[in-house]
Amino acid sequence: MICNATKPLLRKISYLPNTQCLGSIVGFLEVRKPVLMIPILTNTYFSGAGLMDIGLQAGGLTLQQSFEIEAICCDSLRRNFSHEVVQCDITKKLVSSEKECQVMVATYPCTKYSPIGDIHRVRTGDDLFLHFFRHVAIRRPELYVVENVPGMKKFPVVMEAMTKLPDYYVHVACPVKSSIWLPQKRDRLIIIGSRRNFAWREPKSEKPVTLAEILEPDPAPHIPDYVGRRLAGKYRDRPIISDPQRGDIAPTCVAHYAKDLSTRLVADRRFPRGARPYTVREYARLQGVPDSFEFSGSSNDAYRMIGNGVSVPVGKWIGAEITRYFR
To answer: What are phi and psi of 313, to 5 degrees?
Structure first.
C-alpha cells in the first residue's frame, strides 16, 4: 500500500484569460498543489476596428498587440481596448519588432477572394497572406488562426501556404455561418494551425438573435434620395429588403454599404415605401457588436469598419476553442 505522503505531487499549468500577472495562484488540484493560471497572449493582424478582438477576448484570450494600417481603425481599437495597438504596414514590419505570443490571428482583407471581386475584376488573390505566413514561419507560435471568405479556397497557393506549414496540425472549418448566432447570412473560412493535434469542435447550432430583436425602437436612419429611386425601380438592381415579420435575416454586411445605403434595406411600415436603411447601431448588432462599442469617425466610416469586420460570435467561438486547447 502506498501512503499518500509518498505519492508524487502533480503540478498543472492552465491558460486562462486576462490574468494580470503570470503565475498567480487561483486554485488547487486534488493533491493541493497550486495551479498556475497563465494568460493566453494573443496578437492580431489586419485587426480593423477590432470586431474579431471583441470575440477573442470574450472567448477567453488575452489580447496583447493589434496591428492595423488604418488610423481610424486604430483609434476605434484604442477607444475600446486597453492592450497595445500598433499602426503599421505589415508588409514593411519586421517580425522581431513585436512581442512574443502564444496565438497569432490574421483577418487580412478578403475583397480579392470574394465574389464581389469578380464584379470589380480584382479577384486575383493577394500577397498579404505571405506577410502573415512570414510572421508565423519566423515566430512559430503555439497556434495561429486565419479568417477569410470561403472563396480563398479557390487559390491553391494561398491555401498551401496557410495549411502546409511544417510541424503544425491544421484544421479547416468552412463554412462557419454567422447565422448560427445572428440574423445575418455570412459564411467564413477559418483555418487553425496548432503545434499538437486537437479535436476542434464545430460551432453548435443554437437559437439565433432575430432581426426584430436587433432593430432600434425609434430609428432615425439617414435616407439619401437615391434610396427612393432604387425602391422605385430606377436602377438595374432592386434592393434586398429583409422583413422581420416574415422571420427574414439580413444579407451579408458589406463595407461598401457606406457608399450605397439603398442596396440592403429593412422593412419598416413607418417609412416611405415601407423600407429603410439600417442604422449604424443596427448594422453593428447584425455583426454581434455590443452597444457599448464606440466607432471613431463618421457614420460612413462605421458602416465600412463593420462590414470589414468579423462577426463577434465567430471570434468568441474561436477564442473559446483555443482556451479549451490550452487547458
So the answer is: -65, -25
